[in-house]
């Protein structure tokens, strides 16, 4: 056996080890107890695979490879360390876009090489290179637009007449260009046109999608990048790419479905309809009843079971630390406190859990929608902070409402509801919230942090006999 | 090129594995998980490295260079943010 063959064997064995570590790592991420070890294990797998690859590449363009790795790792590592937890969704979108771009670049490089040689290894390889490049390109530019939107760098939605038809034409054109490369002619101009169309389509496809649907879109692009990586893995004859890419593609698809289900929006609906136009639904009669912090504190003081329902508004107000402080005050007074999380609270499913974890809330106090919903009827006080559409009972009662059918937290069943809110505005979807008009609901108009501070102060005042 | 049927089997088995390992993840870990799987497809870096090593023309080298840089960014950034998020999950019953 010569040295090259031996080195290739060594690299392939390392890829095998890395693939096992990735799968075990993701599996360990399934429980909060082992999750940290899981990512460290997957990280180790990545380092092993990367180092082993130098055995294949040898000294060809070695300086370029090392320079590119350093230029890729350094800024993202620093950025990732510094970014605020509230901004996590856009970071995931951005890193995902990079992965898609990398897969597209592999495809582009190989295709151009074939064009230069005037022949491809086989039609199958050529097709896989094209499909991977198409998906990777869409995922890259789409993710960048998703990042820009979530980061507030871009107007939330961008629509024009005949948009869907126009987008479809661009998509069809890129598919036709790709097909032409495979069956007709390995031509450089054609390849460039194919990439340009695919990249433009990624932008066009993401532009009309509103911020509320972005989690589903990012998850979808994550799955797409996985697939693109797997396809380019077939082209490069690289098992590590095939296995890791496919696992992510499959896992990401399932995750996307779970998310879309939680929002009660079919994926096609997210991608091809313009949501968030607002309005619709029956008018709600009644009035919103305000409450002062001192009275709200008295209600909490007398309560035994308290459920806190946080929404993204809480995170925007940076109130999670204060809310946890308030919860600790309640726990100290022997009250049962739980946090109820809607599957799509925050900007990504599970985002709220991360935000609460950052504030120090133990994960065993945090309950999923299905577990907590039966408990609202035996709960004395439910505090809603920064959540709106996910607690709106019209999702169950009013068939004409745009959010009809969306699963909600049954906050309205609690004996008493306190809603902490800055003003009388509607939620993200622009729909009136029937909960705010319910008899058992009181509105505490204040900024999240300020409200929590006041409630803590009032609770202490009651303790020292200064209360009502 | 790997035998096409062998490749299809790998693809199928890996797809089922992906579905299986994710279906047991609780909702509270969905964000770190999405971020974690985002990190895993950073393995594309390895493919990009091989592609760059085989590039001869200036254009090929430029594209390969971009590929490696983006792939490395995907892997490094994905790892850092996932690790940061998972580190914060703590139980009230102590460690």
UniProtKB/TrEMBL annotation, chain A:
GO cellular component, one term: plasma membrane
EC assignment: 7.1.1.1
Transmembrane segments: 6-26, 38-56, 62-80, 92-112, 124-145, 165-184, 190-209, 216-235, 241-260
Bilayer topology annotation: Multi-pass membrane protein
Lipoprotein is among the record's keywords: no
GO molecular function ontology, one term from the record: NADP binding
Gene3D superfamilies hit by this protein: TPP-binding domain
Family per similarity comment: Belongs to the PNT beta subunit family.
Endpoints of the signal sequence: none
Matching SUPFAM superfamilies: DHS-like NAD/FAD-binding domain
Domain NADP transhydrogenase beta-like span(s) in chain numbering: 12-457
PANTHER family the record matches: NAD(P) TRANSHYDROGENASE SUBUNIT BETA (PTHR44758:SF1)
Lineage, broadest ranks: Bacteria, Pseudomonadati, Pseudomonadota, Gammaproteobacteria, Lysobacterales
Protein name: NAD(P) transhydrogenase subunit beta
Catalytic activity: NAD(+) + NADPH + H(+)(in) = NADH + NADP(+) + H(+)(out)
From TrEMBL, chain B:
Keywords: Cell inner membrane, Cell membrane, Membrane, NAD, NADP, Translocase, Transmembrane, Transmembrane helix
Primary localization class, coarse: membrane
Source domain of life: Bacteria
Gene Ontology cellular-component annotations: plasma membrane
GO molecular function, one term: NADP binding
Topology of the protein relative to the lipid bilayer: Multi-pass membrane protein
Localization (cell): Cell inner membrane
This enzyme's EC code(s): 7.1.1.1
Spans traversing the lipid bilayer: 6-27, 39-57, 63-82
InterPro entries reported for this sequence: NADP_transhyd_a_C (IPR024605)
Reaction(s) catalysed (UniProt annotation): NAD(+) + NADPH + H(+)(in) = NADH + NADP(+) + H(+)(out)
One Gene Ontology term from the biological process aspect of the record: NADPH regeneration
Enzyme class: translocase
Occurrences of domain NAD(P) transhydrogenase alpha subunit C-terminal (ranges): 8-90
Entry function: The transhydrogenation between NADH and NADP is coupled to respiration and ATP hydrolysis and functions as a proton pump across the membrane.
Protein's name in the database: proton-translocating NAD(P)(+) transhydrogenase
């Amino acid at each position: 056996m010569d040295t090259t063959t031996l080195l290739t064997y060594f690299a392939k064995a390392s890829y095998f080890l890395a693939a096992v570590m990735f799968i075990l790592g993701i599996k360990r991420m399934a429980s909060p107890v082992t999750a940290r070890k899981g990512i460290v294990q997957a990280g180790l797998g990545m380092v092993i695979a990367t180092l082993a690859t130098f055995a294949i590449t040898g000294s060809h363009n070695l300086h370029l490879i090392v320079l590119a790795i350093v230029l890729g790792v350094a800024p993202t590592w620093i950025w990732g360390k510094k970014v605020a937890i509230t901004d996590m969704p856009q970071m995931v979108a951005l890193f995902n876009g990079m992965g898609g771009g990398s897969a597209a670049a592999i495809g582009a490089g190989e295709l151009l090489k074939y064009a230069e040689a005037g022949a491809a290894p086989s039609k199958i390889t050529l097709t896989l290179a094209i499909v991977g490049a198409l998906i990777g390109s869409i995922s890259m530019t789409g993710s960048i637009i998703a990042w820009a939107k979530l980061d507030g760098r871009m107007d939330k939605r961008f629509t024009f007449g005949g948009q869907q038809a126009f987008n479809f034409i661009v998509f069809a054109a890129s598919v036709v260009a790709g097909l032409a490369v495979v069956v007709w002619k390995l031509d450089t101009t054609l390849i460039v046109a194919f990439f340009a169309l695919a990249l433009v389509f990624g932008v066009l496809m993401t532009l009309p999608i509103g911020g509320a649907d972005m989690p589903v879109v990012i998850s979808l692009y994550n799955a797409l990048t996985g697939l693109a990586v797997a396809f380019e893995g077939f082209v490069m004859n690289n098992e590590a790419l095939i296995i890791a890419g496919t696992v992510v593609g499959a896992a990401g698809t399932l995750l996307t479905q779970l998310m879309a289900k939680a929002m009660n929006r079919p994926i096609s609906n997210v991608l091809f309809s313009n949501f968030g136009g607002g309005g619709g639904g029956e008018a709600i009669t009644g009035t919103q009843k305000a409450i002062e912090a001192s009275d709200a504190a008295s209600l909490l003081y007398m309560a035994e079971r308290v459920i806190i329902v946080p929404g993204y508004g809480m995170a925007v107000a940076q109130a999670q630390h204060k809310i946890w402080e308030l919860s600790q005050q309640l726990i100290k007074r022997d009250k049962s406190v739980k946090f109820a999380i809607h599957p799509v609270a925050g900007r990504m499913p599970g985002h709220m859990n991360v935000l609460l974890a950052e504030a120090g809330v133990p994960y065993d106090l945090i309950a999923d929608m299905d577990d907590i919903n039966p408990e609202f009827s035996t709960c004395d006080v439910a505090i809603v902070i920064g959540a709106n559409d996910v607690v709106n009972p019209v999702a169950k009662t009013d068939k004409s409402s745009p959010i009809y059918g969306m699963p909600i937290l049954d906050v309205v069943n609690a004996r008493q509801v306190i809603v902490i809110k800055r003003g009388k505005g509607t939620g993200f979807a622009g729909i009136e919230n029937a909960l705010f008009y319910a008899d058992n609901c009181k509105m505490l108009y204040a900024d999240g942090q300020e409200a929590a501070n006041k409630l803590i102060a009032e609770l202490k005042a009651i303790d020292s006999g200064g209360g009502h | 090129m790997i035998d096409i049927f062998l490749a299809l089997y790998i693809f199928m088995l890996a797809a089922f594995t992906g579905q299986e390992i994710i279906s047991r993840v609780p909702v509270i870990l969905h964000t770190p998980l999405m971020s974690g799987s985002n990190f895993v497809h950073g393995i594309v870096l390895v493919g990009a490295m091989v592609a760059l090593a085989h590039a001869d023309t200036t254009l090929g080298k430029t594209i390969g260079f971009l590929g490696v840089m983006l792939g490395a960014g995907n892997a490094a950034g994905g790892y850092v943010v996932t690790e940061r998020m998972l580190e914060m999950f703590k139980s009230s019953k102590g460690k």
